[in-house]
Write a structure and sequence with these properties.
Layout: E1 4-10, H1 22-34, E2 37-46, E3 55-59, E4 62-70, H2 71-90, H3 101-119, E5 127-131, H4 138-144, E6 150-154, H5 162-165, H6 171-178, E7 183-186, H7 189-203, E8 206-207, E9 212-215, E10 218-224, H8 231-238, H9 241-254, E11 258-263, H10 272-285, E12 293-298, H11 307-327, E13 335-338, H12 344-352, E14 356-359, H13 368-376, E15 384-388, E16 401-403, H14 408-420, H15 423-439, H16 442-454
Parallel strand pairs: 1-2, 1-5, 2-4, 5-6, 6-7, 7-10, 11-12, 11-14, 12-13, 14-15, 15-16
Antiparallel strand pairs: 3-4, 8-9, 9-10
Bound molecules: adenosine-5'-diphosphate (ADP).
Length: about 450
């Protein structure tokens, strides 16, 4: 079996399985099986000019090699081009794009630096799997250094339509570098179509059977590989005796009230202000929910050094304060907003104890919370998933209540429908959803991608 090499902006801690999600575990076990290597940033920031030699640690049969970033790498590659240019624009939010020339220079520099270290660790027979938007040009940098191994890329975030993408400074260079891969994987067929449209309209490319896409004198396979979760992990966490106790406590506190839950990183792509407004609409349109239903929103902070994230935090705090001030009473708080990370097993218990899961991003690559909410439900008394049509998960999860997150009345009506849905309909919808989430789980995703990568032909040496 070929050795697997995984590269991502951050590596996971293979020693601590407590907070590691299904993705880290699935990748970790593939590395264990093949004696593989995980390469990425260690999360540390060092002064400019400090040498960035890899730190190599062995975990059983797998190796983790990490490098620090310098302060200017962090500012320009990570906060800059990755999170102020690619992240907003690939989520269709050009208004939040904030470009400086130093950003693209930092992005190129870090990808080149990583390739310098990584090229020495790769053998021709290895399978190299590079993850996400921070590292798009990494294969091109590796090829420049003579790497002939098969290299696949998976984009965890959406791929925007060409009309949006052409506003990204250096988009032509960025997309050309994708052609140094053997396979480029996307979350949904919508992303593949957007990529193909760019290739046809902007790069004079050609599409052939089996996802073969040719441009810039090279051919890659471009396909969707929707990512999944570890269903049993979430299910088991939601059914421990500790979880049972938490759910009982929740039920006692809530008396005969129902809870709607949202769990998201505090990111402007997640549609949180609109979600809060839609909850207000629910209380206005259907006043029987006053004192009967509450929204629990768990939203840990991320990327707080980017101004747009500070803005969204302030907006959300204002909105929850307004709704609670207007509708709340001494014995009822309509919106409970928790601004920190919660242990995964508590999250699973909260999912199970909530009548509806509200997943309403304005745009999302996949959205694993939607799948986790489904996995945590009781088969004989499941809650209802309300899902944005703009989450990648909506391509698959058609039995959810699919909503337009920009239409507050639509979302409020879906909440009301979820709260009133008869048991038989809830069971029927859940049955379809859990079947699909289970079949297309994280292991299936990993196997599908690696099989497709293995099936490509190795590059000829230059
Ligand atoms: P994204 O990758 O954009 O953050 P996803 O929904 O695909 O969105 O994945 C988020 C992951 O982070 C899920 O596995 C979810 O359970 C986890 N998560 C989200 N919020 C929290 C929180 N407050 N505490 C712990 N884990 C969280």
């Amino acid at each position: 079996m070929s050795r697997l090499i995984v590269v991502s902006n951050r590596t996971a801690d293979l020693e601590s399985s407590v907070q590691a999600g299904g993705l880290a575990v699935a990748i970790g076990s593939a590395l264990e099986e093949t004696g593989g290597l995980w390469f990425g940033w260690d999360g540390n920031i060092v002064d400019d000019g400090v040498e960035q030699a890899p730190n190599i640690v062995q975990h059983n049969n797998a190796t983790v090699a990490t490098v620090p970033l310098t302060r200017s790498d962090y500012d320009n590659y990570y906060l800059g081009y990755s999170n102020k240019v690619i992240w907003p624009s690939f989520h269709y939010r050009l208004g939040l794009l904030d470009f400086q020339t130093a950003f693209i220079e930092g992005y190129r520099r870090v990808n080149a630096m990583m390739a310098d270290h990584l090229a020495k660790l790769i053998s021709p027979q290895d399978l190299v799997w590079i993850h996400d938007y921070h590292l798009i040009p990494l294969a091109a940098e590796l090829r420049k250094r003579g790497v002939t191994a098969r290299i696949g890329f998976f984009l965890h975030i959406p791929f925007p339509p060409p009309d949006v993408l052409v506003a990204v400074p250096e988009h032509d260079w960025l997309i050309e570098t994708l052609f140094a891969y053997d396979i480029v994987g996307f979350q949904t067929s919508w992303d593949v179509t957007n990529f193909q449209r760019y290739v046809l309209d902007q790069a004079n490319g050609v599409l052939k059977a089996g996802g073969q896409t040719s441009a810039f004198g090279r051919t890659v396979v471009a396909r969707n590989f929707p990512i999944g979760i570890d269903v049993d992990e979430v299910r088991n966490m939601a059914h421990t005796s500790e979880a049972e106790a938490q759910i009982r406590l929740l039920a006692q506190r809530a008396l005969n009230r129902a809870q709607i839950i949202g769990v998201d990183r505090l990111d402007y792509t997640k549609g949180l202000p609109d979600r809060f407004r839609a909850f207000r609409r629910l209380l206005e349109l259907f006043p029987d929910n006053v004192k009967r239903v509450s929204l629990m929103q768990i939203a840990p902070p991320t990327r707080e050094e980017v101004a747009a994230y500070v803005d969204i935090r302030e907006e959300l705090e204002g909105l929850s304060g307004n709704i609670n001030g207007e509708f709340g009473d001494f014995d009822w708080t309509p919106v409970r907003y928790i601004h920190r990370a919660i242990p995964r097993n508590t999250l699973a218990a909260l999912f199970r104890g909530s009548k509806a899961g509200l997943v309403t991003p304005l745009r999302d690559g996949m959205n694993l919370v939607a799948k986790e909410y489904i996995a945590a439900q009781d088969d004989d008394d499941p809650g209802v998933l309300i899902l944005s049509r703009f989450a990648g998960a909506a391509e698959d999860l058609e039995e959810a209540l699919i909503v337009n997150p920009y239409d507050l009345d639509d979302v409020a009506n879906a909440m009301q429908r979820a709260l009133k849905m008869p048991l038989a309909e809830r069971i029927e919808r859940h049955h379809g959803l859990i079947g699909r989430v289970r079949t297309r789980d994280v292991k299936h995703w990993r196997e599908l991608f690696l099989r497709a990568l293995r099936d490509t032909k190795q590059q000829a040496a230059a």
